[in-house]
Automatic annotation (TrEMBL):
It comes from the Bacteria. GO terms for biological process: regulation of DNA-templated transcription. It is an enzyme of class 2 (transferase). Its EC number is 2.7.13.3. InterPro entries: HATPase_C_sf, HATPase_dom, His_kinase_dom, HisK_dim/P_dom, HisK_dim/P_sf, PAS, PAS-like_dom_sf, PAS_fold. Pfam families: HATPase_c, HisKA, PAS. GO terms for molecular function: ATP binding; hydrolase activity; phosphorelay sensor kinase activity. SMART domains: HATPase_c, HisKA, PAS. It comes from Pseudoduganella flava. This is Sensory histidine kinase/phosphatase NtrB. It catalyses: ATP + protein L-histidine = ADP + protein N-phospho-L-histidine. NCBIfam families: PRK11073.1. Member of the two-component regulatory system NtrB/NtrC, which controls expression of the nitrogen-regulated (ntr) genes in response to nitrogen limitation. Under conditions of nitrogen limitation, NtrB autophosphorylates and transfers the phosphoryl group to NtrC. In the presence of nitrogen, acts as a phosphatase that dephosphorylates and inactivates NtrC.
Length: 373
């Protein structure tokens, strides 16, 4: 999408101090990050998508040199210089922009010189990793829907014969001869107990589809504080749960109990993975909240979204199951049911949000994005 012609006029107007609300409001609706730099390479304008990408407001970015924001400015500076020299009508290049203490930005950059006295250059920055994330999110949503239908149908098919098996075992027990009752009753009890165990598993698989979605006003920090108190009661020593909250986050409509269960499932999994660090006394889980701008969730664009991170310093998710952790009955630990993350994903999807995970040894980050009003 080439948007230079319209953006160039608006950006040139910005240099003349025309109020952003009057002249540049339309640029905040773009998913593409748009930045205008003056002849000295200083930021004269950045739209909302650029503020989100650069994780800073226009007020904070204003008059900073764009290239100074990155640890490897040479390529970006070259792109801007080539565009300013009018060597190309617009210059396009794939760049990796390194940032101190943060993940690098992988962007497709389009630089165009503006015909104005400022010798300004307009940059469009499209995050290529973000596009891959959107594609992956779409695949996960499709897979989740298929899994949901498969689980529901399979659970119902299992549930009916289970009742018959349990009932037959009980009748058989009643007909056992007194002479061998105690010896043979052991076998019928095995059948009954295993049938009950499978029934419990089936009920847990069906639970998200049975429970009504109770909507009310939700303060995400109340949810996190509830989970924090539950976790510290279960793990009173060796585990630190760190708060990193954005107090400006507004309330939103949602099911508070489902969100508590979602965060609790993730945090509990993290604590179990942190067993060795808890014993050593240096285990840590971080609850981090931020606002994300101009976010696409389930193919719908939202101006604002809750950006919730649950981060632990555990060993990380085993590579062989990393792409399947939200599948039912997939567990990274012995004895795990493999349902906690499946339920978490279901509850997040019911709130029109997405959940994703980044993991490596020493760092696992579950990220939940939910639309905000």
């Amino acid at each position: 999408m080439k948007i230079v012609s319209n953006i160039a006029r608006a950006a040139a107007a910005a240099a003349g101090a025309i109020p952003r609300s009057q002249t540049l409001a339309g640029l905040d609706l773009l998913a593409t990050a748009v930045v205008m730099v003056d002849g000295d390479g200083r930021i004269a304008f950045a739209n909302a998508a650029a503020e989100n990408m650069l994780e800073s407001s226009l007020k904070a970015l204003s008059r900073q040199r764009l290239c100074d924001l990155f640890a490897n400015p040479a390529e970006l500076d070259h792109v801007i210089g080539q565009a300013r020299a009018h060597k190309f009508s617009d210059l396009r290049q794939e760049l990796m922009l390194e940032r101190v203490g943060r993940e690098p930005l992988f962007v497709h950059a389009i630089a165009s010189a503006l015909d104005d006295p400022m010798d300004a250059v307009l940059l469009e920055l499209r995050e290529t990793v973000q596009q891959m994330k959107l594609d992956r999110e779409e695949r996960l949503l499709d897979q989740s829907q298929v899994n949901k239908e498969l689980i529901r149908n399979l659970a119902h098919e299992i549930k009916n014969p289970l009742g018959g098996i349990r009932g037959a075992a009980q009748l058989l027990e009643m007909e056992l001869p007194p002479l061998h009752l105690q010896q043979l009753r052991e076998y019928t009890q095995v059948i009954i107990k295993e049938a009950d165990r499978l029934q419990t598993l089936v009920d847990r698989l069906l639970a998200p589809h049975r429970r009504p979605h109770i909507v009310g006003d939700v303060n995400i920090h109340e949810v996190l504080e509830r989970v924090r108190s539950l976790m510290l009661a279960e793990f009173p020593a060796g585990l630190a749960i760190v708060r990193d909250y954005d107090a400006s986050l507004p309330e939103f409509r949602g099911d508070k109990e489902q969100l508590i269960q979602t965060v609790l499932n993730i945090a509990h999994n993290a604590a179990q993975a942190l067993a060795e660090r808890i014993d050593a006394g240096d285990a840590q889980i971080v609850f981090k909240t931020r606002v994300a701008r101009q976010v696409t969730l389930a193919k719908v664009r939202y101006n604002l979204a809750l950006d919730l991170h649950i981060i632990d310093n555990g060993p990380g998710i085993p590579p062989q199951i990393r792409d399947r952790i939200f599948y039912p009955l997939v567990s990274g630990r012995e004895g795990g049911s493999g349902l906690g993350l499946t339920l978490a994903q279901t509850f997040v999807h019911q709130h029109m949000g997405v959940i994703e995970c980044e993991s490596r040894p020493g760092y696992t980050d579950f990220r939940i994005l939910l639309p905000l009003p």
